[in-house]
């Protein structure tokens, strides 16, 4: 019986940040032999050298087409690898597909041994997505605040209003037009740009 | 309310039919809200269709057959094909250094019909063998792609054993061009614009076009999940009609420039307009710096029954899978192909429209005297072989 930590897991991801959090998740759960590679033209040779039991790869990664050919010609690698999709486990397939995870395993590896690994990848992919969304939102917020600052500055300079009056003017118009303050700020900036 | 259909596609010239169906309003006219999703790999297209992320997909004609046979380490996937998405568009491109070697090894073969240009490649391979050099590397786009079968057909006809004499790997279409440029492969078979692009950049030379190997041969198809088809009969018919109308529009020479503009957009193919124009207007450039050649049938979307899912073509693909050892020789294709290729769905969808529909579901492929030759157009194999598959004759 192969112990957990003896599974040789390979994470292939063009996104090094996501690969790192998947790798860390697996290592923290007790899988000691985890490697990761980005995209590479000698993918086949590198996989042969690593001889993984399980490959976790982003569902949309174009390298999957290359991998599948390699598995077809199973003589090319030490052991035949089959895509892991056990039809009896429809819920996990759905979760994996919606998280964007796909996995390939050595043929014959037991389903109950694979599941925690794939589950970990799914949860890390989802966590990464969440982080990315939050970061995008934070960046958007930051640029919204900058727009409001600029509009306030223009109103103060061009209309002689105080900072508070400028802000109140933007807010009042936003409420009246049922729009966001930064949208009004954008209109103000555009309007001043038009004048010059 | 409009029926929403989510369709996945790969950035290639032959995604034109679904792209036009949306852009030119053919889908909307059939009350379909067509949502298009761009993907970079065939494995992603197949999986997202199979697991319900997509309702429909632009796919390689061999994928639904492979899916039905449970190939590629996957469970059986029931994808059906109600129509084809055009013909043509592939080519075999080799790196400029390999082209120079082929030219030197056999200048006569390189002047003759392009379908036989592999004879020069064979001489290069013989030279390498004698000198103990490593084998050349080629790439196609997927194990079950027409590209894989075309490249092998072209090589085998010249006496090259594709499994022994060269290395054939797989690279997703959008990555082909960089792989050739960086010297990771010596040649490839891919759909446009990825050949024309290598020529325009001076990195490669086109040595054979799809039509030099077998014109009118199967290429991309519309893939749908069988259960989705059963539950959405009317939507399937409307979708097929919209796509057939889009194909008709895309086939008009007068619309090809506009089509090149539409496809050049980043959300569609995202390749330079000039590259797409050369290919779509039937004037491909085969060698860097040379004038284009006249190939009006380089891309066929509608004429020559280009949208009809011929059973005989599905059968030919199945035979190629046998030929190259992807499936055992005793697989009964007569049982498999009619479950996958569904001309009945096509006929039902276009019934009553002014669309030319063949009388039979199968034909004799490649025969100069086939009764439906005028309907299908020239379809000569490079080695004059004839592929007979006559069941379904009335």
Question: What are the key terms here?
Answer:
heterodimer, A: 196 residues, alpha/beta, Rossmann fold, Arc Repressor Mutant, subunit A, five-stranded mixed beta sheet, B: 394 residues, D-Maltodextrin-Binding Protein, domain 2, globular, Chemotaxis protein CheY (chain A)
Describe this structure in words.
The complex is a heterodimer of chains A (196) and B (394). By secondary structure, chain A is an alpha/beta fold. In chain A, 61% of the residues lie in helices and 12% in strands. Chain A has two domains: 4-133, Rossmann fold (3-Layer(aba) Sandwich); 138-195, Arc Repressor Mutant, subunit A. Chain B folds into two domains: 3-87 and 217-265 and 302-376, Periplasmic binding protein-like II (D-Maltodextrin-Binding Protein, domain 2, 3-Layer(aba) Sandwich); 90-209, D-Maltodextrin-Binding Protein, domain 2. Chain B contains 19 helices and twelve strands. Chain B has helices at 16-23, 26-29, 42-50, 63-68, 96-105, 107-111, 118-131, 146-157, 173-181, 196-200, 210-213, 226-231, 233-251, 256-264, 273-280, 311-323, 333-340, 343-350, 373-376, and strands at 3-9, 32-38, 56-60, 79-84, 87-88, 90-95, 136-140, 166-170, 187-191, 204-209, 220-225, 299-300. In chain B, helix 8 links the parallel strand 7 (136-140) and strand 8 (166-170). The longest helix of chain B has 19 residues, at 233-251. At the A-B interface, helix 3, strand 4 and helix 4 of A face helix 3 and helix 9 of B.
Q: Order of helices and strands of chain A, N to C?
A: EHEHEHEHEHHH
Question: Which CATH C-level class of the largest domain in chain B is it?
Answer: Alpha Beta
- Give me the secondary-structure category of chain B: alpha/beta
Level of helix content of chain A? Answer: 55-70%
Our measurement of the CA-to-CA distance between the termini of chain A, rounded to an integer number of angstroms, reads 77 Å
Using the coordinates shown, work out and report the CATH topology of the largest domain in chain B: D-Maltodextrin-Binding Protein, domain 2
Please report the number of helical segments of chain A.
7
Q: How large a portion of the residues of chain A is in β-strands, by DSSP E? A: 5-15%
What radius of gyration of chain B results from the CA coordinates? Answer: 20 Å
**Residue ranges of chain A: pLDDT <50 for 5 or more in a row?**
none
Largest sheet of chain B: 5 strands, mixed
- Assign an overall shape of chain B: globular
């Amino acid at each position: 019986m192969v112990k957990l930590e003896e599974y040789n897991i390979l994470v292939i991801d063009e996104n090094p940040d996501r690969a790192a959090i998947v790798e860390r998740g697996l290592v923290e759960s007790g899988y000691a032999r985890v490697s990761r590679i980005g995209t590479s033209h000698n993918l086949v040779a590198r996989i042969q050298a690593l001889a993984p039991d399980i490959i976790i790869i982003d569902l949309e990664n174009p390298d999957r087409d290359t991998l599948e050919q390699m598995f077809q010609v199973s003589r090319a690698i030490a052991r035949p690898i089959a895509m892991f999709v056990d039809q009896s486990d429809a819920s996990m397939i759905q979760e994996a597909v919606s998280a964007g995870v796909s996995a390939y395993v050595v043929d014959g590896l037991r389903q109950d041994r694979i599941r925690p690994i794939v589950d970990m990848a799914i949860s890390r992919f989802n966590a990464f997505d969440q982080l990315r969304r939050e970061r995008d939102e934070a960046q958007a917020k930051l640029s919204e605040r900058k727009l409001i600052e600029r509009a306030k500055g223009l109103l103060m300079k061009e209309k002689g209003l105080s900072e508070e009056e400028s802000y109140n003017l933007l807010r009042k118009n936003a409420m009246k037009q049922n729009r966001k303050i930064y949208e009004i700020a954008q209109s103000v900036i555009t309007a001043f740009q038009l004048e010059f | 309310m409009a029926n929403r259909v989510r369709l996945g596609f790969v950035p290639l010239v032959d995604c034109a039919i679904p792209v036009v169906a949306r852009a030119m309003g053919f889908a909307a006219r059939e009350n379909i809200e067509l949502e298009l999703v761009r993907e970079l790999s065939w494995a992603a297209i197949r999986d997202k269709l199979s697991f319900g992320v997509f309702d429909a997909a632009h796919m390689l004609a061999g994928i639904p057959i492979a899916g039905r046979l449970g190939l590629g380490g996957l469970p059986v996937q029931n994808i059906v094909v109600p129509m084809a998405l055009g013909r043509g568009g592939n080519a075999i491109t080799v790196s400029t250094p390999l082209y120079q070697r082929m030219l030197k090894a056999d200048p006569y073969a390189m002047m003759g019909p392009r379908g036989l240009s592999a004879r020069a490649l064979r001489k290069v391979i013989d030279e390498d063998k004698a000198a103990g050099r490593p084998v050349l590397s080629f790439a196609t786009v997927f194990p079950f792609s027409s590209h894989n079968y075309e490249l092998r057909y072209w090589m085998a006809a010249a006496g090259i054993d594709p499994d022994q004499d060269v290395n054939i790997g797989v690279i997703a279409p959008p990555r082909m061009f960089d792989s050739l440029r960086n010297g990771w492969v010596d040649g490839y078979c891919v759909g446009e614009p990825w050949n024309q692009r290598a020529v325009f950049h001076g990195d490669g030379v086109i040595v054979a076009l799809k039509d030099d190997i077998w014109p009118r041969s199967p290429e991309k198809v519309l893939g749908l999940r069988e259960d989705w088809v059963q539950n959405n009969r009317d939507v399937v018919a409307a979708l097929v009609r919209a796509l057939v109308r889009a194909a008709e529009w895309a086939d008009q020479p007068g619309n090809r420039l506009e089509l090149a503009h539409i496809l050049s957009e980043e959300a569609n193919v995202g390749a330079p307009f000039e590259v797409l124009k050369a290919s779509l207007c039937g004037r491909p450039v085969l060698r860097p710096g040379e004038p284009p050649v006249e190939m009006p049938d380089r891309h066929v979307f509608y004429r020559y029954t280009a949208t009809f899912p011929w059973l005989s073509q599905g059968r030919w693909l199945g035979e190629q899978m046998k030929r190259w050892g992807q499936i055992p020789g005793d697989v009964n294709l007569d049982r498999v192909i009619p479950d996958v290729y569904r001309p009945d769905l096509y006929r039902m969808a276009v019934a009553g429209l002014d669309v030319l529909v063949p009388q039979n579901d199968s034909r004799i492929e490649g025969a100069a005297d086939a009764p439906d030759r005028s309907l299908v157009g020239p379809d000569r194999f490079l080695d004059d072989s004839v592929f007979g598959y006559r069941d379904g004759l009335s």
